[in-house]
Amino acid sequence: MPGPVPFGDLARECRALAPQLSAAFERVTRSGWFVLGAEVAGFEAEFAAWLGAGTAVGCASGTDAITLALKALDIGRGDEVITAANTCGPTAVGIENAGARLRLVDADAETLMLDAAQLAAAITPRTRAIVPVHLYGAAADLDAIGAVAARHGVAVVEDCAQSHGSAWNGRRTGTVGAIGAFSFYPSKNLGALGDGGACVTQDPGLDARLRRLRNYGQADRYTQVERGLNSRLDELQAALLRAKLPHLDAWNARRAGLAERYRAGLADCADVSQPRVPRLARSVHHLFVIRHPRRDALQTFLRERGIATYVHYPLPLHRHPAYADLDYAAGAFPVAERAAAELLSLPMHAFLTEDEVDVVCDAIHAFS
């Protein structure tokens, strides 16, 4: 039997970049400066340039990036923020940590992105923002979502935790809405060696406020002009991200090639389908997700053959016990609920081999 296929293997990435990562670590320790220094400033400038964005503001996590984005837009207590029912908990936590009330919209049946056609009906007089989630490395329909937002005078904050380098209609995600919120959790296409995040904006006023909010709301070292957070990207993580960023385009291209190999290898599996990437979107294949009517049995079959898989995500937000008070009944979001029962994420990362992809495809054929 072929060897095991891990879902991800961050050790491979670290081995490949060992000299660069070691140099980054040594540079920080020799400097003696560990919070909000030259490494953070350097990464912010380089990441913004890579995105084609105005500015990037580093913070402690992708969840905090959403919270900071909403606070910078003066969204909080008494306001409602709409997001996709089929996203994961961190999106909801980021919204609620800003003090806003979470509201949900179902997914599009083909793309599994937030369904812009249902969005207008969910907006109330209290709605202040929409948080589309760019799932799986693709992009939500920012044209349609932006049009609804503009008609109702609400902001768009992009959740880009899975979309480092993906694009909508030629513009990289995170640069289209008022603010883009990025995560650098280790498993992301661009991952730190710990937690990290960033807000991206074209607005100098929002940039200045984000920088203040991430650092207690301080205008200077001992003067707090508003209530903020302690949410700073540290120097070490910024230095490590700077070492990785020059490789990100190549890694994303590698993921695209592996995704094409998966598609070719699974093309004749009758029970296997995939969410459709929207026509104007370019995916960076953070995840390679399939749908199967017997998902749980398939996952067990693959696990018994040493192939690791995950489910992103097994419950829509409104089915979590923590969000029972949202007053959405079972069946309120049928597309999200059905997808949660059928989705399976196959191994996908830039250091996956073609042979490992073939092993996964052969096993799925054997199950079918």
Task: Characterise this structure.
The protein is an alpha/beta fold and 368 residues long. It has two domains: 237 residues, Aspartate Aminotransferase, domain 2; 121 residues, Alpha-Beta Complex (Aspartate Aminotransferase, domain 1). Helices cover 39% and strands 15% of the residues. It is built from 13 helices and 14 strands. The strands form four sheets. A seven-stranded mixed β-sheet has the order 1-9-8-5-4-2-3, sandwiched between helices. Strands 7-6-12 form a three-stranded antiparallel β-sheet, with no helix packed on it. Strands 10-11 form a two-stranded antiparallel sheet. A hairpin with a 2-residue loop joins strand 6 and strand 7. Helix 3 packs parallel to helix 9 and helix 4 crosses helix 8. The longest helix is centred in the last third of the chain and has 18 residues.
Order of strands, main sheet, comes to 1-9-8-5-4-2-3
Number of strands: 14
What CATH calls the topology of the largest domain is Aspartate Aminotransferase, domain 2
Low-confidence stretches: none
Biggest pleated-sheet summary: 7 strands, mixed
Return the CATH class of the largest domain: Alpha Beta
Overall pLDDT, averaged?
97
Q: Figure out the total of helices.
A: 13
CATH H-level name of the largest domain... which superfamily? Answer: Type I PLP-dependent aspartate aminotransferase-like (Major domain)
Helix content: 25-40%
Radius of gyration: 20 Å
CATH architecture assignment of the largest domain: 3-Layer(aba) Sandwich
Using the alpha-carbon principal axes, give the shape.
Answer: globular
Taking the alpha carbons of the first and last residues, their distance comes to 18 Å
Which range does the strand content fall in? 5-15%
- In the residues, how many domains can be counted? 2
State the order of secondary-structure elements, H for helix, E for strand: HHHEHEHEHEHEEEEEHEEHHEEHHEH
Q: Which class do the helix and strand fractions yield?
A: alpha/beta
